[in-house]
Amino acid sequence: MPTTVIVGTQWGDEGKGKLTDLLAKDMDFVVRYQGGHNAGHTVVVRDDSFALQLVPSGVLYEHTVPVIGNGVVVDPGVLIDEIEMLEARGVDASRLKVSGSAHLVMPYHHELDKVTERFLGKNSLGTTKRGIGPAYADKASRVGLRVQDLLDPRIFAEKLDVALREKNAILAKVYNRLPLDADEIIDRYLGTYAPKIAPMVTDTVSLLHEALAGGKNILLEGAQATFLDLDHGTYPFVTSSNPCAGGACTGTGLGPRDIDAVIGVAKAYVTRVGAGPFPTECKDAEGELMVDRGHEYGTNTGRRRRTGWLDAVMLRQAVRLSSISEIAITKLDVLDAFDTLKVCVAYEAGGVQYKHMPYHQSVLHQAVPVYAELPGWKADLTNVTTIADLPSEALDFIGFLSEQVGVNVTLVGVGPARSQFVRFVA
Q1: Which residues are 157's β-sheet partners?
Q2: Among the options 21, 28, 37, 41, which is catalytic?
Q3: Do 180 and 111 meet the contact criterion of CB atoms below 8 Å apart?
Q4: Helices vs. strands in the chain: H and E counts, helices first
Q5: Which helix (H) or strand (E) holds 341?
Q6: Is 28 tagged catalytic?
Q7: pLDDT single digits (tens) 128-142
Q8: HSE on the CB side for 260, CA within 13 Å?
Q9: Would the pTM of this model clear 0.85, i.e. be above it?
Q10: In this structure, are residues 290 and 282 in contact, taking their beta carbons and an 8 Å threshold?
Q11: In sequence order, what are the residues at sequence separation of 6 or more whose Cβ sits closer than 8 angstroms to the Cβ of residue 112?
Q12: Burial label, 237 (beta-carbon count in 10 A; 0-12, 13-18, 19+)
């Protein structure tokens, strides 16, 4: 399949990085299409763990070309640090290509993200405070600086002057913060960052279309997930871009007819970081067990993730929104310790039952999950490599989920390592 999209179907942290790594061995290009360094992908290769933020997971295969698409917002300092980390650990990152049309995360974006979260107080959105939202806001307001501006000092300085006049006024007059110095930013971005990033900057739209014309295989890798999507997520507790499959088109310049398959990634349970509705959340010992067994702490922030039972209502909606053609289930082994498993098959609110996500936020906040209960397998799955070795209860769990959402499960993860998965027939 020439072009495949990987989409998270929950609130992120589903294990997209591991799936990307698994599929990348058959791909020529691996492309990030949205988000920034607010999302972390962890890939375990043998006994080595790589926590990636901006560089596509496919960089770990020497034959792939990793690409940062135009839909990503790039903090150049973070990108350079990540490249140097990879190089120090023996990974060649010189193949990386960066879209000249990707927007830059600037120092004032970091400052605005921090102060606005504090200003919101109890109504804060739980952002990572890494400047992603303000960078996307400037993009939409048409005042953003782009990667290509690093290649033109005059244009960079002119755009920065316009931006800083507004941002410094806001920081000083609204938030009582010291203004940022233009010369310091210019020295850092043009003097330090630009020479290191310039060799990677390219027209990634032409690069990818030429690759397709040449019969190459392309994997499009999203950050965050469906219910953090700016348009379709649990607004306002969302990210500032579109992780759904449609975002793969706008974030790369490939068209809808260029996409051959969309793989949805779902944990065998659900996690969420930060604020927002979570109908199946477990605030009891079962939730704590999921945290402990799943090591549910953020790759970037270290924040404890909220946990809950698998939600088929969410998954059905994710299938709709991204035309998902197959599903990969991760962390099935985390459920090894449970006697009984629960799957949410519907919500109830105000005397009405919902089998798809209710559009109105007030309904979602009141939603009570309707559960189906299935027996657990109480066996260690971490060494399972074939379908025949899976307990019947695990097969029943996977089959039930597939029936609920109407899409086949084609891969199941049973541990963090690259080799710990079971492949099903699509």
Answers
A1: none
A2: 41
A3: yes
A4: 13, 20
A5: strand 340-349
A6: no
A7: 678 999 999 999 999
A8: 9
A9: yes
A10: yes
A11: 131, 134, 167, 170, 171
A12: buried
